[in-house]
What we know:
single chain, about 300 residues, alpha/beta, Arginase, Chain A, eight-stranded parallel beta sheet, 10 helices, 8 strands, about 45% helix, globular, Histone deacetylase, Ureohydrolase_dom_sf, His_deacetylse_dom_sf, hydrolase, HDACs
Amino acid sequence: MLKIAYDPIYAHPLPEGHRFPMLKYELIPAQLLHEGVIGKDNLFSPGLLDEDIILRTHDKNYWHQLRDLTLSPKEQRRTGFPLSARLVEREIRIAKGTIDGCRYAFESGVAFNVAGGTHHAGSNWGEGFCLLNDQAIAANYLLDSELTKAILIVDLDVHQGNGTAEIFENEPRVFTFSMHGANNFPYRKERSDLDIPLQDGVSDDEFLEILQSTLPGLIEQHKPGFIFYLSGVDVLATDKLGKLALSKEACKTRDLFIFEQCFKHHIPVQVSMGGGYSPQIKDIVEAHCNTFKAAIDVYF
Length: 300
């Protein structure tokens, strides 16, 4: 059975005026339920995460500043959010949902987190709506638990996974692959194991050709026992923060290709949704829902 991490706190951790980026987290499961794509038994609400698991990935001083709500105003502005206990709880539950999703993925091949993809959070910083790096925390959890010996992180958000790259810079068991807009935030990039910066306005065909000619070789070369997929839909032409020009159809083709490769090679995959900032919320929700539908087409 497909299992999907979701909790209402994903959508409502912020005061009025900061909620637009969060609305999709409520609307995605609602739309999937409305269409009959999933049932309520597909959804699970993650609990809290032990501090020692967070500290395997994030610097102790940084985590304590988050936990104790003592980040400086400048550091809070970098995250894009006003810091609050509810926001920190949200980040902890997202990370726990990604870890739990990994266990479900070992059972059924694939699992989702409605939120997550918080790839701008580095070991000792938060930025770009990211405070704790959910997939990095989960990857370290898998390694520490000896559930896998090699991990591939496939980050197809329009923004480079700079925090993820920094966290795993000296970890040979985790290969970080980021395919992103060259001129998009973050303007100071970190170095992934493989970065493919794309020029503004990249079309469907060009994007898909690059991906389809790259990923199979990475799988063959590094033989991962687990894959994390960050499926941002800020690659859409309609996205107000992204500078690429993909259609919804190309996004779904992208997702199908990822899942087909994982299925073909019997590699469990955990999916976090990443960014999406089109002016019309319906475009964001539809594109994200297509990712779930692509996984169901391949696995179920």
